[in-house]
Structure formats: structure tokens, C-alpha cells
Design brief:
Blueprint: E1 2-6, E2 13-17, E3 26-30, E4 37-41, E5 47-51, H1 54-73
Antiparallel strand pairs: 1-2, 2-3, 3-4, 4-5
């Protein structure tokens, strides 16, 4: 499960997963470009993007977190 909390000092929305509720795995911030929002996923191979709407940014971030978290949980084949 993915949860979010807004930092009262910075206004940044930080995202957390149940298995590690104290370490942010992603964030959404208002961009310096008017009416745009930047999202960042910090798991494994970090990925980021920009969206014209906060809901779109949040959905993109949630997808990135879910995909990377699933990849971390998948068994790795031995070579």
C-alpha cells in the first residue's frame, strides 16, 4: 500500500510504502513552470516526470513505485 504525507515545512508530498513507512520512496512538487507538477520515484533506478495536473503526477508516481517495488520483490534467477 502507498501512503502520502505533505511536509508542513516544504509543502512537498512525500510517498511511502507499507514495508518501510519512514523512508520516502517518491515525491510530488509544484514545478517552477506554472501549473506543472514534478514527480520523482527513488526506488532502484530512479525515474521522474512532469505532469500538467497533480492527479496525473500522483498516478504516474504510484505506477512507478508499484512497478519498481514489484521488481524488487520478484525472485531473481541464478546465472
Amino acid at each position: 500500500m502507498i501512503s502520502s504525507r505533505i511536509c508542513p515545512h516544504t509543502g512537498i508530498a512525500n510517498y511511502f510504502i507499507t514495508s518501510d513507512p519512514l523512508l520516502a520512496v517518491g515525491s510530488v512538487t509544484e514545478s517552477t513552470t506554472p501549473s506543472h507538477f514534478d514527480w520523482r520515484c527513488y526506488l532502484d533506478d530512479p525515474v521522474a516526470g512532469t505532469a500538467p495536473d497533480i492527479r496525473i503526477a500522483e498516478n504516474a508516481l504510484r505506477r512507478a513505485i508499484t512497478l519498481r517495488h514489484q521488481a524488487q520483490q520478484a525472485p531473481h534467477p541464478h546465472k
